[in-house]
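Standup notes
- DV: blocked on the single-chain target, sequence here:
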Amino acid sequence: MTPKRYTDEQRRTFTELFGRNIRDFWCNFTGFNVVKFDEDIVKPADGVSTRQKLQKDWGDSAVTLVVGLMG
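- DV (later): unblocked, structure below
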């Protein structure tokens, strides 16, 4: 199995948007840990999706970034 990676551009964008290092949410075997990201950064209210909260608070670029990291 090839370890998952993120690009330098994704790393920079992540830090610019969220003020944290992407490595805090990354595993080389499983990739982006969206559950930890959701709990530590996004913190959506009940009934609000992570995508909705990202869109509202950080905009389209955040949604595109996170979807790309999960893919």
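- Follow-up: Residues 8-18 form the longest helix (11 residues).
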